[in-house]
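Feature request, filed as a ticket because there's no other form

It would be nice if the structure record came with a short human-readable summary line next to the tokens. Right now we just get the raw output. Example of a typical job, pasted below so the devs can see what we mean:
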Amino acid sequence: MTLAAVSDAGPLIHLAEIDSLELLSTFDTLLVPEAVYNEVEAGGVPDRLVDLSYELVEADESRVGTEELDAGERAAIAVAEERGVVLLTDDLAAREATSGAGVEVRGSIGVIALGYSRGLLDRGEAASLMWELQRETSLFVTEAVVERGIRMLDEQ
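Raw output as currently delivered:
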């Protein structure tokens, strides 16, 4: 089964902050909307992004009509809905904007869990990365969310 995803800036930034961008290679196809790339580029493109295999895509973010989201989030949602791929986002408003649209959503913790399920990480490494996300990155994530992510590992 082919697994494809589109990412907004959040997972690209947060996984880079814990030196784990390679986990995005868990997806057979990774799409990055131009608006997302521009957003990431404005803050400095993470070094390891050049090592990833991804496709830069155009998106009509005007289709997603919510002012709470930036252009990158809207573009990623538009691509996810259009192509029926997994949406990678750490943004709660973006998750809420897709509810009811039949779009599968994963955040950075979900990407780590997927890396574990596909054998790229052992349980200890995956749990450690989840805690690093909480303690060492710009991502706001509660201890309860990390603990829920670790329980996901045990359920796989």
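Something like this underneath would help us a lot:
The first helix runs from residue 9 to 17.
The beta strands are 4-7, 29-33, 55-57, 86-88, 105-106.
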